[in-house]
């Protein structure tokens, strides 16, 4: 195993540092809001050197994008239940669980803030949505392949994700199972 | 005319100061984001004394709430076109125009940020929504009085306002007339 492989071994030091830095960012967003902390403060919170962060991520903006992408993507693999209604209900419930969880508001605010932060942020936000849309699209394509009538990925954004995001952003929680299933049933 | 009446005369000094302070807040939110400026900076931008702001609004939080309420409420009186479809299409187009206008993103971010800012912010956000919901409800009640089948005010939030807010927050603009009418038609 060479140096590079060791550094990237899952569960190794690199993964640990990554997780600690990500958690520090999420905590700082929760406590202070987006844009109110520096790379130095993230480093101090995570117990690493500033230079480690700059070496790995290059800038605070890139780090924030990485956190948003990781949190919004990795935590919810797309469901494959055999029916579109089942997939969408499971997916909507996963998203609801994420965005109402302890770091949920921070992650939604981060996703929103990215797009409001100049050209680099707009690009980061677009990349984040492109990845989610790709995953969502394969779920909808599977339904179409089974002969089901599937909506557009934008319909899912407008009528399932947007209402949940806005209710979390406005503090109108919890999102009950009845409410979430209602959004899906209404869209279908 | 006594001193009090003079101070409140529309177009008088008080109204001018109010408008300048509101514009200063909107500009600072656009430039720096919510939470990244002080009462002193608002005062300097508006060309008034800090003490004038504290005397009139008491705190930065109250001032921000006042700006959000004024911008989101006063600028769009509820339409009364004689049909629910006409009212909702006009209303949705008004909201779209506001939130995609020069200060639109700042106002949406302010409405969102209010609710993420502790108990006082949650209350301010709830007050803001209560006022909008009351106006919306009278529009829906008029439709019901005419014998039309009207949705719930929360349906309007979830399926007309939330998609537009999220698209503005994500930088997915413009909101075309076809898109806006489509949201209304789909909901009805």
UniProtKB/TrEMBL annotation, chains A, B:
Molecular-function annotations in GO: DNA-binding transcription factor activity; transcription cis-regulatory region binding
PROSITE patterns listed in its UniProt record: HTH_TETR_2
HTH tetR-type domain sequence ranges: 15-75
Stretches that traverse the bilayer: none
Coiled-coil annotated spans: none
Record Pfam families: TetR_C_11, TetR_N
DNA-binding region, residues: 38-57
InterPro entries reported for this sequence: Homeodomain-like_sf (IPR009057), HTH-type_TetR-like_transc_reg (IPR050109), HTH_TetR (IPR001647), Tet_transcr_reg_TetR-rel_C_sf (IPR036271), TetR_C (IPR011075)
Keywords: DNA-binding, Transcription, Transcription regulation
PANTHER family documented for this protein: HTH-TYPE TRANSCRIPTIONAL REGULATOR RUTR, TETR-FAMILY TRANSCRIPTIONAL REGULATOR
UniProt-recorded name of the protein: Transcriptional regulator, TetR family
Organism, scientific name: Streptomyces atratus
Highest classification ranks of the organism: Bacteria, Bacillati, Actinomycetota, Actinomycetes, Kitasatosporales
